[in-house]
Amino acid sequence: MSTRDDGLSNVDLTQYHPNKQKMLKGEMYFAFEDPFMITDRAITSEALMRFNDYRGSSRRERTRLWRELARDKRPMPPELPNVESDEAQFDATDPWVQAPLFCDYGYHPHLQFAPTAFINMNCHFVDTCPIVIGPRTLVGPSCHFYSGTHPLDPVLRNGLHGPESGAAIVIGKDCWIAGRVTILAGVTIGDGAVVGAGSIVTRSVESMTLVVGNPARFVRRIERGEVTGGQKVRSDA
């Protein structure tokens, strides 16, 4: 299984507001009692509307809007006259994210999408704690990632006035998360794993394994060269 670092190994938490530091570490914090947190989400909400409202086909513009949402301050590369060559510039530098997408915060370290990762349409990210998605991982449509949790005790939970907490979700490289999968807080999915459509993942998944169901259960190990249902790519193909 991939080494789990909770997405915070290279993050200087001291740069953040104390309540936000607690949130990122998975400790009890207050999401709606803190004006800083409310403003932080409002900034993301405005950028998210611009990202989701874009109706064009330009990857350059889609990437620019994604970087705005992610608060990624890298300058865009110079535009090339050939459209294909221009769009190819982003293959190794940015994830491919389809709209609409929904999240609370959207920027590093909350969402950490590797370059070459693909996020299909209508995915939801409760990114209280980091949600890490590795290189070349494919995420199907309408997947939900819930890194936030609430107390079970209703008195402690106290509607919008009580504390919340969470745990990071870490997905390795070369995974396939099929459509309508739900992944809960604290789950790690190892490199090369596949999660079948509609599954609800409540515990971590080993590398190079197939899991399916509610809750997701181990089906079998994945063999190199396997396409589907035990069929393999022919060596002479």
Could you explain the architecture of this structure?
It is built from 5 helices and 20 strands. It has helices at residues 18-24, 35-53, 59-69, 83-88, 154-157; strands spanning 96-97, 101-103, 111-113, 118-119, 123-126, 131-133, 138-139, 144-146, 148-149, 165-166, 169-171, 176-177, 182-184, 188-189, 194-195, 200-201, 209-212, 217-221, 226-228, 231-232. A 7-stranded mixed sheet has the order 1-4-7-12-15-17-18. It is globular and about 55 Å long.
Largest beta sheet: what is the strand line-up? 1-4-7-12-15-17-18
- Put simply, the count of helices is 5
Low-confidence spans: none
Strand-and-helix sequence, N→C? HHHHEEEEEEEEEHEEEEEEEEEEE
Report helical residue fraction: 10-25%
From the N-terminal CA to the C-terminal CA, the straight-line distance is: 31 Å
Work out the radius of gyration.
19 Å
Shape: globular
Mean pLDDT: 93
Biggest sheet character: 7 strands, mixed
Strand tally is 20
